[in-house]
UniProtKB/TrEMBL annotation:
Highest taxon in the source lineage: Bacteria
Transmembrane segments: 58-75, 87-106
Native source organism of the sequence: Paenimyroides tangerinum
Protein name as annotated: DUF3810 domain-containing protein
InterPro entries: DUF3810
Any one Pfam family match given in the protein's UniProt record, by short name: DUF3810
Keywords: Membrane, Transmembrane, Transmembrane helix
Length: 354
């Protein structure tokens, strides 16, 4: 019983300490994100960049097997089963929180990009409509320039190596305007759990313990370039989902290849249309009708893919992940992804998009 109480106390103390650290974003930025984290990133990348297989994915499997094996051992002993399992679970939770925060999680507490750029975080509905209109015009123009036919959808070759290279080039172009360290990081890798991710509704993820970024290799190819750039943002210590979306968009929109520009603008447009639809269904339909038919086909293909492959785990895991985000200073939970629109609107007011 003392062991259980001890771990409960340790978890509580750790959470209180993290609550205190939330008040010190500039300290986190200076000493953790800009120094300690970069050192960890460099060391881990040295060990994981040499293989296309995700070491982190393999470790996840081994850890799950070890946990199950340990629990089975406690059950077989038939003595104080509940107490032993409870103590082991609390120990595992404590270790997860501790190492997650040390290796990556404290980036959630760093100075927000909106503060660094001195831009607002809210917007008027009219500003959302203006940006949506702007993105429609840009995306229509790019689609037609690529296909020479407004009814033809844009197709991408599935080339993860090319998407990684484009992302790296994009971040180099962002270095002057943003405080993004051009640190060494491994390429985004194919996830070993792509089928599972598809059913759960996820496109990719970062392993916070190995700093490897993984992509669901089964998703529609049109979404892969920005997803790769999004996950690389996480490798760079950009923790919030809204900011990772923001930098993923900018990295791809800065490319010379108009295919990548199209992928980036389509990505941003879909988020804007989603926000418009939440606020005004009629306005959403008006905007959607302005899209070239080829763009509508790209959007339709993506939505069809997710709907057809969605399973019961999607809502469960997204609720779990949403609560996890809230515990890590992303108060909007799963809606944090959509806060990308807030950033983009206010960034566009200060630094007009091309």
């Amino acid at each position: 019983m003392k062991k259980i109480v001890g771990y409960i106390f340790a978890i509580a103390i750790l959470q209180l300490f993290l609550t205190f650290l939330k008040r010190t974003p500039y300290t986190i930025e200076k000493y953790y994100s800009s120094n300690f984290y970069l050192a960890i990133q460099t060391i881990l990348t040295y060990f994981n960049k040499w293989t296309k297989i995700s070491i982190g994915d393999v470790l996840y499997v081994l850890v799950v097997i070890a946990i199950i094996y340990k629990i089975i051992q406690y059950i077989r002993k038939k003595e104080d089963v509940l107490k032993n399992i409870s103590g082991y679970v609390l120990q595992t939770i404590f270790q997860f929180i501790l190492f997650f925060q040390i290796f990556w999680g404290l980036n959630n507490l760093r100075v927000p990009v909106s503060t660094k750029l001195e831009i607002d975080t809210n917007y008027e509905l009219a500003e959302l409509y203006d940006l949506t209109e702007q993105l429609i015009q840009k995306t229509n123009a790019l689609q037609y320039e690529i296909t020479k036919n407004d009814s033809a959808k844009v197709d991408f070759e599935k080339d993860l190596k090319a998407f990684n290279k484009a992302s790296r080039n994009g971040y180099k172009k962002l270095e002057d305007r943003f405080d993004i360290a051009l640190i060494i990081h491994s390429d985004v890798k194919k996830s070993l759990f792509s089928s599972f991710l598809t059913g759960a509704g996820f496109s990719g993820y970062l392993n916070p313990f190995t700093h490897e970024a993984q992509i669901n290799y089964d998703i529609p190819v049109i979404g892969m370039p920005v997803t790769v750039a999004h996950e690389i943002a996480h490798q760079k210590g950009i923790a919030t989902e809204s900011e990772a979306n923001f930098f993923g968009f900018l990295a791809m929109n800065s490319q010379e290849e108009i295919d990548y520009q199209y992928a980036a603008n389509l990505y941003a447009l879909k988020y804007c249309l989603k926000e418009v639809r939440i606020n005004n269904e009629e306005k959403f339909l008006q905007f959607y009708d302005q899209l070239n038919f080829g763009i509508q086909e790209n959007i339709s293909d993506s939505e069809k893919f997710w709907q057809e492959n969605k399973n019961f785990s999607s809502n469960i895991l997204k609720n779990v992940y949403g609560n996890f985000l809230k515990l890590n200073n992303q108060k909007d939970g799963i809606r944090s992804y959509n806060r990308f629109v807030d950033l983009l609107i206010n960034y566009n007011k200060k630094y007009p998009l091309p």
